[in-house]
Design goal:
The protein has 142 residues and is an all-alpha fold. The chain is 70% helix and 0% strand.
Length: 142
């Protein structure tokens, strides 16, 4: 039975890792395109980062009580998604961090591990110069 659980965790980890890579794919970063090209892409395909972020959120919700197996391991990758300078992507992802705190609180009676990982990863990202002004404002880093 534990082999099946371990295999399922690997599958979920792979799914989340691939979703994060997809959302952060340089060719999907519409901000780097001219406004005319951006409009053309959005009209034809929509913002595929937003669509994939909704899928990631949905899959996170489907984990149910198994979420605890991905805390704090997915905090860094999920924070990487919030670096995408797209408000809707950020708004979709932020509740996942709240959910992580909630699940750790249920399991351990506190959320110190999530808190420490969030602070550590945010500190690293900001010290590396990542994240725009809206990002820093979102996380209260200004």
């Amino acid at each position: 039975m534990s082999v099946i659980v371990c295999l399922c965790e690997q599958v979920w980890n792979s799914y989340f890792s691939l979703a994060v890579l997809y959302i952060n794919q340089p060719s999907l970063q519409l901000e780097s395109l001219s406004s005319a090209k951006r409009k053309k892409v959005l009209d034809k395909y929509g913002d595929m980062r937003v669509m994939m972020t909704y899928e990631l959120f949905s899959m996170w919700q489907n984990l149910g009580e198994n979420k605890i197996h991905f805390i704090p391991g997915m905090i860094g990758p999920f924070l990487g998604v919030t670096l995408v300078p797209q408000v809707e992507v950020r708004n979709i992802m932020i509740p996942i961090f709240h959910d992580m705190m909630d699940w750790e609180q249920r399991k351990n009676g506190n959320f110190k591990q999530v808190e420490a990982e969030l602070i550590d990863k945010l500190d690293s990202l900001v010290s590396e110069g990542k994240g725009d002004e809206n990002y820093r404002e979102l996380f209260g880093l200004l």
